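Example with several molecule types.
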Amino acid sequence: MIRFNGISKSFGKTKIIDNLSFEVNEGEFIVLIGPSGCGKTTTLKMINKLIEPDGGSINIDGTNISDVDTVTLRRKIGYVIQQIGLFPNMTVEENICIVPKLLKWDKEKCLERTKELLELVSMPYEDYAKKYPTELSGGQQQRVGVLRALAAQPPIVLMDEPFGALDPLTRDALQDEVKTLQQKLNKTIIFVTHDMEEALKMADTIIFMDKGKILQKASPEEMLRNPAGDIIREFMGKHMTQNNNQDLKAEDFMNVNVVKTTENKQTLECLEIMKRKKVNSIIVTDKENTFKGIITIEDLKNHGKVGVPIGTMLNKEAQLIHKDMGAKEAFDMLIETKRDYLIVVADDDKVIGIINKTSMVKALADALWGDLECMNS
Amino acid sequence: MMSIFNYTVEHLYIVLIACLLSAVMGIMLGVVAYWVKYVDTVILTLADIIQTIPSLALLAMLMLIFGLGNTTLIAGLVLYSLLPIIRNTYTGIKGISPHIKEAAVGMGMSRWQRLFKVELPLAFPMIFSGIKIAVVTAIGVSVIGVLIGAGGLGYPIYRGIQSNNVALILSGAIPVVILALLIDFGMAKIENRLSIVKK
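Resulting structure tokens for the full complex:
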């Protein structure tokens, strides 16, 4: 367990970390996120004493790290950086084995460990161990960077934007691999990123920092649901909008392809339209598109006579709703009234769309899984 | 002509001893300059100043301490060759990407482990080219060693000047030129190979 107790740090006159306290449990995947200059990297680097705090203490498993020999401490903490930092004068194998060698493991154990680790990321020992870092792709280099950090089986691994410089596909693959590795090996990982998507995907707990303070420490789920402040909401970006449906109105998800006709049309014409559009009722308006009523196939059957305008047998039983009606209200009404559709109208009863069960399902799906094109098909 | 061969061997011997000593000292001073804050300017300025002293004057001053003979010449060459080696060691290590250094620190390497496992190996092509410059310069400079009683190819040249014997002058001068060219060529080859490996 890692515990920060009232840590502060200034560079010159600028306060970078301001009285920071938090805990990280064993086996937890913690992501530190926030705008640049929020102190997330500084926080990370204090754990392996690359940066010394001005005040406060950091305890790992109950021991204050300032009482531990720096070199000994660092060998027990894996460290992965964005720029990878593999040593170009060493082969993949030599790079992976640096810390084990520093810890005086014997050759056989080192070899075994290298093979085992390369296996984990599907880079066969025979093909890759003797290569130099420059012979590898960026993704492979960072895989080796991660393996190097894991080599001496440290319980804690620090990762400073490890995938920031990789292309999206490689990044995605590495995120999955690291997450799997972490769960398999039960490591405590402190991970710095400025990419909310990455944070949501990887983290057990997200710590959102701004100006050297923690704005929110929560699970991804909780942070999505209740972001503690505008800056977090902004950071969530598109992840937020799909979950923020309070303002959704009827007109936002109505179907605008409405089968309409005017009241001077006659019975046969109407039947023809119904046949063509495969509907069993038509909305009837005047020439200005103002709602007059609907006409169903039953109405036509029961009252229709050839040559008579449909205006005489209009059915007034349709349910109108205003375009500003809230989504939830509209859905409730659709279910309660047991109608096939609601007619959405603008201020002066002008018909602008309908809401039926299909539009409802689409709106729900959109809220759950993000933007699925538009609703107007 | 046998004696020219002997002079050449002696010449090379003096240059090699001097450059070995100055390589060891130069790399050490370069590392100290890199390690200790503010000391870098002191060391580099001193080496710069030594370089600007005319070689004859430098040897004359050293003669007061070491007397006549090869020792004085070697001491002079060592001082003379320090600058390119110190400078290249210093800039070579300084120029290593900070991320690589940070990775080394973060993984728990001590200062000496970083030096020997990471910094010197990575700076080595640069250091080697400093040594090359030092050797080639020393081959030329050591010719005036004859004036303070040292041996080498300076001797036939000096004798030729005194006796107005062009053939004798050339018998000393041509081997110097050939030596310098050969060593420059050979070391440049090695240098190239080194920088390819490091890429």
